[in-house]
Amino acid sequence: MKNKIVADILYQIADLLDVKGDIFFKTRAYRMAAQSIETLDEDIEIVSKENRLRLIPGVGEALSKKIKEIVETDRLEYFEKLKKEIPRGVIDLLDIPGLGPKKISLLYRHLSITNISDLKKACDGGKLRDLEGFGEISEKNILRGIALREKTSGRVLLNVAYENGNNYIKYLKQCKKIEKISIAGSLRRMKETIGDLDILTSSDTPDEVIEYFVRYPNVNNVLLKGNTKTSVSLNNDIQVDLRVVEKKSFGAALQYFTGSKEHNVKMRSMASKKGLKLNEYGLFDKKTDKYLVGRTEKEVYNKLDLTYIEPELRENRGEIETAIKGELPNIVKHGDIKGDLHVHSRWSDGTDTLENIVNYAKKLGYEYVGIADHSQSLKIAHGLTEKRIDDKIKEIDDLNKKLEGVKVFCSTECDIKPDGALDYNNRVLKKLDFVCIGIHSSFKMNKNEATKRIVKGMENEHVDFLAHPTCRIIGRREPLQLDMEKIFDTAIETDTYLEINSFPDRLDLNDTNSKFAKERGVKFVIGTDSHNISHLPYMHFGIANARRGWLEKDDILNTISLKNLEKKFGCDL
Ligand code: DGT
Ligand code: CA
Ligand code: CA
Question: Which ligand is nearest to the CA of 265?
Fold first, then answer.
């Protein structure tokens, strides 16, 4: 389906026209058409082929031609031309959270601001406050937006790195000269954002491996080429580093290049205290330089009197001390998850039918799936009225009668209003198999207000779990200011599970929060927040994040069997 591609281009055109200061109704027309296509039930390619584009609300003669061009060529000449009319730096300003195209237009036309650094200077110098629609507060907000952007700039989200890394590995596995191969670096540790990809191989003929490596079709530029290492950048600007080592060093090198740097520093000093020397070639006797071990990571850890430490734990957050005592947690595994309890369907703003979702869930080996659609106030997400909840319950009941080996739970992701009230009354909440709650608007609150809001939501007796607790969007929205200890304590008191949201730009709770929460006794649920079945595999990233937070199977609700979950939700009564 190209619906999203078409809608994205139309939205971007509207933004660019706004930046140019074009007439309002023209930009509005693009946005309306984009919205119609985004929510269209049909495949735009078919609609275009059958010459029915003009039947789409908001699509006239001129727009239908443009849409046809995008559908057939994946690009639009008009859009390319438009981009060239506006300086590149001005277009970059659209990436700053909280700064829309209309404001950018004013900055560009009245203050001649053409890039982020100009904008920063203007904010610092108090130049914006005299412009209509801006004030001292906007200067502060823009500076905060720029800082947020810069924090993640040059890094990519975990899912993007993961896909690129795996594709590269698939290619490299066809090279007969490579004996062993592994991802290393932050991707192996499954950090939420990744600076560059690191790949480690062992081979007797490093030069041939390097030749093969740089011939990967997605390589755009070879940045460095040595005897045993090389760095390239891909077409999407991601940098990839390769190291080739001897077989007997593979484990030590993998340990070294997996990092983190902080973990490595501690490992080395530990080795040194034991009269040993640890580097990427192996573990050696400090005095005689005799090679001791290095083929596998496990050998290296064990020789230093440590139990094996999983890559996700290697952040120097106490894992080495705990491994000395042999008390590392048995962290949750990918196969432990029995279902997904945070999935949106076509009943609200998801794109798939219940049947499609269930079929995919079955393929993933799940025993259950919870359909948590948006609540009534979230009109933009097609939130459900009470009447539609009743209809949905009926559809799910009928579906469950036909299903074998998997069960659908009917739920909601009920909005928590600014005063902490829930978007449905108790009569409605009671009808659902379980209740998930979350914040979806009015994010600008002080710490006290925001904490109270969530605490009040959790105190409702029907609530089972809190979705994306801090509401951050990596690189775009700061987490809510919250008294986390109060949130964790309330979660325990009210028996509310906290979600580890698996969506790659959320990963919320993050690893440090969930580790801290677990130490206090909080329980969790890992959900994907899928809006399309292609999002269901994001579970992998939620699990990785939970592993980084030291969570074990028993800490996580959706590792229990269907039977026990039904008991927990009171569905067996
Ligand atoms: P990234 O790429 O910023 O997401 O993070 P990493 O952890 O992948 O870092 P990277 O690519 O610079 O280096 C890969 C690993 O190599 C790193 O995790 C640990 C090791 N390493 C790099 N530099 C040093 C260093 O100065 N000292 C030690 N002990 N290890 C290092
Ligand atoms: Ca790296
Ligand atoms: Ca690197």
Answer: 1
